[in-house]
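Posting this for the archive.
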Amino acid sequence: MKKRKIYIDTGGLTCPKKRSQEFLRALLDALRKAGLEQAVQVIPRGCFGLCNLAPNLYIEPDGLWYSRFTVKDIPEIVQSHLIGGQPVTRLIHYKKG
């Protein structure tokens, strides 16, 4: 499995109101359960400027943005995308290339 970085929007005015810390905890928990703590670096960050699409996360080096997902979608993102190599297309906001 290739090393990845996941940037998750937890700052600004909107994301905290949309439970961004709950999404961060769910992501960290799903990665731990999948045994991916060493393979995936999670980077909480400030505002991406995509407030109307929150929550948002960006996966590097894949160049893929997920938006408008729920806490229940996070395990699917981890299993399908990070482990299985198949992005969850219904949740993709943008993919480079």
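The radius of gyration is 12 Å. Residues 20-33 form the longest helix (14 residues).
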